[in-house]
Amino acid sequence: MAEGYFSLVLHAHLPYVRHPEQKDVLEERWLFEAVTESYIPLLQTFQGLIRDGVDFRVTLSLSPTLVSMLADPLLQERTLQHLNGLVELSEKEIARTEKMPEFHSLAQEYHQRFLAIRQFFLRYDGNLLLPFKELMEQGRAELITSAATHAFLPLVLTEEAVRAQLATAVETQEHHFGVRPQGIWLPECGYYPGLDRLLEEQGLRYFFTDAHGLKQAQLQPAFGLSSPIVTPRRIAVFARDEMASQQVWSSKEGYPGDVDYREYYRDIGFDLDWETIGPYVHPDGIRINTGIKYYRITGKGDHKEPYHPGWAREKAASHAGHFLHLLTHRVKEERQSIGRQPVITAPYDAELFGHWWYEGPAWIDLLLRKIHYDQTTVKTITPTEYLSLYPDYPEANLNMSTWGRHGYADVWLREENDWIYPALHRAETRMVEMADRYAGTKEPLRKRALNQAARELMLAQGSDWAFIMDGKTMVEYAVKRTKHHINRFQRLADMVETGEVDEEALSTLEALDPIFPRLNAAHYRSRRSDEVRIQHPHRPRLLMLSWEFPPMTVGGLSRHVYDLSRHLVKIGWEVHVLTTEVEGYPHEEEIQGVHVHRVHVMRPFGEEFIHWVFQLNLMMVDACNMLIKDGLRFDLVHAHDWLVGQAAKTIKHRFGIPLVATIHATEHGRNQGIHSDLQRKIHHREWSLTYEAQRVILCSNYMKQEVEQYFQLPADKLDVIPNGVDPDQLVLLHAGDGSLEPFAMEHERIILFVGRLVQEKGVQTLLDAAPSILKDFPEAKFVIVGKGPMKPELESQARSLGLGDKVLFTGFISDEERNRLLATATVAVFPSLYEPFGIVALEAMAAGIPVVVSDVGGLADVVEHERNGLKMYPGDAFSLALQVRSILSYPDRAQRLAEAGRKEVSRFDWHRIAEQTDRVYRNVLGNAALSSGKQEIAAAMDGK
To answer: Name one GO cellular component term (predicted).
Structure first.
């Protein structure tokens, strides 16, 4: 029995480059070269292994665009013409090099090679899907699919468009190969949370991700990268092995760069004089690769030595042996580590082997032979076979990830290509609307136009176009293809919607782009209710924009928007919240009367945060557009903070909707100044949002003064409305049995902090004060609740101060655990350096425990020293220790402060805050219109 397994995965994909309208289109040569240099050589390799009795398994991903082109008679005919040209050219090369011994035998070898490739092509009548199917039927290859046109799924706007890409892919595979695929190669390995649900719908069992996709997973997989994990929908995920990737892909350490391998860039299409080579390159005088190359890599300079196939074959054998040695070591190491047979997954682009790395097919041939003859350690396996070995693969939630530069969509979302997405998203939403109305039409012409519109949209979505724009290679072609397909889609959509179908024009487009002849536009149908979602036609309707909304909770903004929105519903508003999607939660749901619309957007990661904000705003605008097309008309937009500012501005101007903004904090205040380009950008976006808004709401007088100063806003444009605490939720703050475990021992007295672990929250000041407090009160226990980037630094500070087990960093805890801490703590401390309001301090006061707060920002508005709490000087550990010791020393005084604090909270009731916010809205919209609407609501509620 083998100690572990090796899973070789080859992804064969090309964009749809069929051009019947013109001969000699350069881009069609991508297909001809791939067939000649990669696909047929690989098929020959696999057939040779079978003929020699070598047992092997390989997984082949054939993209639906490639499958469609390989099955296309026109492209089969043109591929044969290409092969005939290569045979003819190689014959002439034999004659030309007769007196050039260093090249003559190589010319003969090329001629024999091209003859064999042409013979292979003709044996299957030009249909290369047949030998791929043979490999599958012989049990040697597992055939899987990709998205229909290789769309980059994380940047597809609508669930319906993703579903159409997946369903069309599965149907195409089933039509050509007779079986539905078990797995999928996600284009560019692009995954986003929630995609597994759509894969499950199509019966797909697994996909692949780059290594960091699993490394960054929520809940680290138990077996590392050498065993798949499963998503919450039980879809298996195989990670690309870093060792396998490095040996083949690395420009420094990878095998293809060896000096004895064939040089890719020295081709006779560029080296020979025009009279000799002219008939075999492009008729417009463009020199191109022919596939006949006489030089080896030699070195990094321009000097190149002749290529020796024998030397290259020896290197391929050596590299195959080296790879197997590394593979064997990895398998043994992983087997010992995880206690089960591991799988080393090696996914590659198929075109690497033969086209870019000429010796690639030989390397695969030699590697699989070596594995076959040394079966004691490693065997080849397919993903489906491996999944059958064990029943207990660990479950984990995956974040968004891709492969490619930087690993998080950097290639497909840059200034060179980001312009394509608004156009694609508008086309998507229009396609969904048309499918909802016309997918069941009995009108033949309208049905044909609808299906062709879907084809054009899919072709425009191909990830190849954005990739080419980023790579700056055939940029003009990629731009043209994107624009042409979008323009064709718009023309067809106009025909569908008016019912006036130009059959001649339609037939022309069907002939130009006949991909997926069985495509079903019904895949684009929306799964939303067909009824227009207007429950209260006389209610004023509010669109609220916030990047946070439960269960997405990073700071206090999430709770604020949740409480405000549901209390606005109670006083007569119809509220729709646009926010970020959360894995496991529906994109649309109603929560206590609030209509929540979660938009698909990639997760922020490191320096990609600004890209994420750009996507968030783009998706919010598109979602608003869809809601309006569904029949909703919004009276007002309320934006919370700069992250949604661009969407708020666009919605205001595009749809003519008045805008109100709430600024919860400023970049200047958080950082005590503007010190970097990123901070400068954020500061400008904050200013822009306040400039565009008719009214600006602040949570404290401190914040009012801040925005007046930093944004030069007139005072009469500003409204101060505090944050709140919901009285209905206060009972939860006393939940629990009074036990301090597991946070502290029963004799200890908890000094509590709750908040984000960032510089401005001042936890470092609390730690500096701890030794002084513990000296007088050794029974004190400091419990720090929250997460944030400063956590490692604060933990290090606690260790250096010798605080030991007297400080507990809990990280994130549930609301129930936090409430139990608020109910059992002796004192809550909020030592902020900057605090616009301080809602957690209010919650502590509502829980009936005394508070010590910094005399800064909104906290200074809430707490009055010696009446309902105690204040400290910001950043002053001595002042903090003095106030905490006062609470611990005088329990009666502490109780009096706590009781006064509890009474103070009544000022911050959410019903009252909703009424204040309503008055701001009235000010913007005009009292008369809103009063009229509310009277109608009141009358309806009273039964009048």
So the answer is: extracellular region
777: left (phi over 0), alpha (psi -120 to 50) or beta: beta
What is the rounded CA–CA span in Å between residue 656 and residue 97?
Answer: 74
Quote the CA–CA distance of 282 and 878 in Å, as a whole number: 81
Query: Is 403 annotated as ligand-binding?
Result: yes
Q: Could you tell me the pTM of the whole model?
A: 0.64
pLDDT tens readout for residues 23-41: 889 999 999 999 999 999 9
Backbone phi, psi, residue 794, to 5°: -70, -40
- Give mean pLDDT, residues 71-100: 96
Among this protein's residues, is 188 annotated catalytic?
yes
738 has binding-site annotation: no
Which helix H or strand E contains 327, and what residues bound it?
helix 309-338
Q: Among this protein's residues, is 795 annotated catalytic?
A: no
Between CA 629 and CA 623 the distance in angstroms is 10
State whether residue 429 is helix, strand or coil.
helix
Among residues 55, 88, 305, 349, which one is catalytic? Answer: 349
What are the structural domains of the chain?
4-71+127-262+307-407 (3.20.110.10), 414-524 (1.20.1430.10), 547-720 (3.40.50.2000), 727-908 (3.40.50.2000)
Measure the CA–CA gap between 469 and 478, rounded to whole angstroms: 7
**pLDDT tens column, 754-782:** 988 988 899 999 999 999 999 999 999 99
Q: Is residue 113 a known part of a binding site?
A: no
- The response to whether 240 counts as a known ligand-binding position is yes
Kindly tell me the burial class for residue 792, based on how many C-beta atoms sit within 10 Å of its own C-beta (0-12, 13-18, 19 or more): exposed
pLDDT band at 90 (very low <50, low <70, confident <90, very high): very high
The separation between the first and the last C-alpha atoms of the chain, rounded to the nearest angstrom, is: 82
List CB contacts of 97: < 8 A, sequence separation 6 or more: 103, 104, 106, 107
**CB distance 723 to 846 below 8 Å:** no
